[in-house]
Write a structure and sequence with these properties.
Elements lengths: L6 E5 L4 H12 L3 E6 L3 H12 L5 E5 L5 H15 L4 E4 L14 H29 L2 E6 L2 H5 L5 H21 L4 E8 L5 H4 L3 H8 L10 H11 L11 E4 L6
Parallel strand pairs: 1-2, 1-4, 2-3, 4-5, 5-6, 6-7
Helix pairs in contact: 1-2, 1-9, 3-4, 4-6
Length: about 250
């Protein structure tokens, strides 16, 4: 599988799953642009890790929830790289709370970044992909978007919305050689999960048939496949990387 001469935009690529995706795409030969809202140092570290594979890489700050930021991002990448062949909508935030305690602001902010942000990125990038008559769009959803989770009404809604968006866009632009798929990670080892109490981790493991947490590379490897021509006849799908958690 090779992605040579391809250019990818990965939102939220400064750490965790996003960084692993950037590195996996670079390893396959793709030029990588990571978009970040905060954490410039982390984004630059991602760039260095990608450049180690001999590809061109850069980091651009943009708030995916703002139309003007996304438009500027896409325009800059097209001008500097010549094409945009892969879009990975990975940027996401959480503001967890029980529904009755959740503020309207906390709900809106999560929806704006996780769902509206993906919509804006797809809207602007797809215009370029439609002219190219090729492209791969991968939306990072979550097992929470498939099965729900108490205390995450906003997050679950955004990730479930991504699944509906994936299927709808796949139907709209599939005839132009563009695939659109969603990846739904389960309980993955990240900086965030490393901070959880051991009791919480053990409780979650009970619902995972494989009885272990996934690695960021497990998600990145699937994204790399979906971004390649090996997956050219796969579209509108939601694939869980969760050790069987969503079954």
């Amino acid at each position: 599988m090779t992605l040579e001469n391809k250019t990818a935009i990965v939102t939220g690529g400064s750490r965790g799953i996003g960084r692993a995706i950037c590195v996996a795409l670079a390893e396959a030969g793709a030029n990588v642009v990571t978009c970040y809202a905060h954490g410039a140092a982390g984004a630059e570290e991602t760039v260095k890790l990608c450049e180690a594979y001999g590809v061109k890489a850069s980091a651009i700050q943009a708030d995916v929830a703002k139309n003007e930021d996304v438009q500027a991002l896409v325009t800059k990448v097209k001008e500097e790289y010549g094409s945009i062949d892969i879009l990975v909508n990975n940027a996401g935030i959480t503001k967890d709370n029980l529904m009755l305690k959740m503020t309207e602001e906390d709900f809106e902010q999560v929806i704006d970044t996780n769902l509206k942000g993906a919509f804006l990125c797809i809207k602007h990038v797809s215009k370029i992909m439609l002219k190219q008559k090729r492209g791969h769009i991968i939306n990072i959803s979550s097992v929470v978007g498939v099965r729900g989770n108490a205390g995450q009404v906003n997050y679950a809604s955004s990730k479930a919305g991504l699944i509906g968006m994936t299927k709808s866009v796949a139907k709209e632009i599939g005839s132009r050689g563009i695939t659109v798929n969603a990846v739904a990670p389960g309980f993955i080892e990240t900086d965030m999960t490393a901070k959880l109490p051991e009791a919480v981790v053990e409780e979650n493991l009970k619902s995972i048939p494989m009885k272990k947490l996934g690695k960021v590379e497990d998600v990145a490897n699937l994204v790399r496949f979906l971004a390649s021509d090996d997956a050219s006849y796969i579209t509108g799908q939601v694939i869980c990387v969760d050790g069987g958690m969503a079954m």
